[in-house]
Design brief:
single chain, mainly alpha, 2 helices, 84% helix
Length: 61
Amino acid sequence: MRKVIILILIILNAMVLLGQIWPEGTPPFARTVNIVFLVACLVYLVFNLGRTNNKKDNKAS
């Protein structure tokens, strides 16, 4: 499951990067892809940060 999420984020990242490198070739839904990528990265990072803190708290107990 984690690999699938990372793969999706990599694909979205590649689309965002391509839009920055070649702006004339961006599709009409490029703004939506940018927003989805940013929100997905934020959710993924916050979720993993929370998991890491919970593991550290459990080991300290």
